[in-house]
Structures are given as structure tokens and as C-alpha cells.
Amino acid sequence: MPILDTETIHSSFTNDSDWKKEAYLQFAQRLSDKKHKFPCIPATIGFQLRHFRYAYVSDPRSEQTAKELAEALKVYGVQSRSFGKYTSLIVFFHTPAEVADQYSVEEYRSLFWRLLDQASGLDESEWPAHIPQDPNHHVWEYCFGGEQYFMYCATPAHRLRQSRYFPYFVFAVTPRWVLQEFNAQPERAEEIKRSIRERTAKYDDIGIHPDLNLYGSEDNFEWKQYFLGDDDVPAAGCPFAHLHKPNG
What we know:
Low-confidence stretches: none
């Protein structure tokens, strides 16, 4: 599974009707829009600096897709520290019209957790010893290849929460070390976080989701932030806790 940089993506656009081209161009437009600024400021910086890497995978309903996702995570994890301090892996899923037009937010939520679970089952590395395997522990987060990640998912079904809308099913995978570096300057980080919340309030047609919190806080659960609903309803139990079988 190739991990593509911006230059490679542009050079690979040979077919104007290719969904891969359309997905990237729509993503680029959202991250670079100066009028309707995307809320996540570090993401816009990472995009502008070309620290992002991209992977294209199959229809999220396909049996082969989890394998492709696992391979992308494996390759990215090995190389990520060479891409820049604002790097994330953007995973675009082939999203046929019948999925984009008909799937609900909850159906996408099920796809999201199933894919993370199946990819985890293909991970050849041990779960990091210092990260609890119980998602209901306040320092738990998704791990693959020995790396810790914050996961973000956007779908075609989100409407009110535009910060979680995208015309294709998409994951953004950010290494924990990127977030740690961002927080290394506390005053600047706090200022940016305030700006992110202000932008989010303007960007979305609904209030800040109650599940958003800070990593490491005892009342924080990372899994709740990975996939936000198109409402203000707090997430119930973590599907990963039921799907994932620790140590195999």
C-alpha cells in the first residue's frame, strides 16, 4: 500500500473522472479555504507544509479494505517521523454513490469501528505496554505498529457538524508524538486550542460536542472523539471494547 506525498498525488492525476483526484481536490479545497476556515489549525498547517501523507483504499464494505488500511498504517508508522512535525495520514476510502447517498451517520460509525478492529487484528506488533487495552481508561488510544494515534473520521452523512463532513468516507490519523510536540509550548498551544473552538463554533451548525476533551484528563475518553455524531448526544459504550480481543 503506497503512502503518497502531495507531489506524487498531483503527478498521478491522469483521469479527470478518477474518484481519487476528486477526493484529494475536495480535501485540498477544505483545508485551504480562506473564507470558511477549517477549524483544526494544526491540520491546515500540516497541509500547507506538505507534511501530510495520503493513502487510497477500497470500498469500506469490502473484505480487503481492512488489510489495505493495516498496510497503510504499517508503512506510515515506520516513516512518519521523516515527514515533518505536523504530519498526519489521510486515508480516502472509495465511497460508491449508494454508500455516500444512503448510509446514515450510525452506519458509518459501525464501518469505522469495524475497520479499526479488523486492522488491529492484522497488526504484527504488540500493543504498547504503557497503554491500557481498555478504551474506558483515560490514557487509552488506538495503537498500531507500536505507535499511538488519534483517529478522526468524516463522512458524507454529517450535515450539522460540518467539521466532520466530507463527500468521501475518510480517516485522518495523527501520531501521538505530533500532538505532544504541539503541546510542548503550553501557552501557544492553549491559544491555538481557543482559536480552534472559536472556528468550530462558526464552522458547524451545531454546538461543540460534549465528548471533546483533553488527552490524559481523568474524565477524558479518546475513543469518544474519534467519531462524533451529527448531534449533541454523548457516545455510549465503545464498540472497540467489544470487538477487539486483547493479546490476539
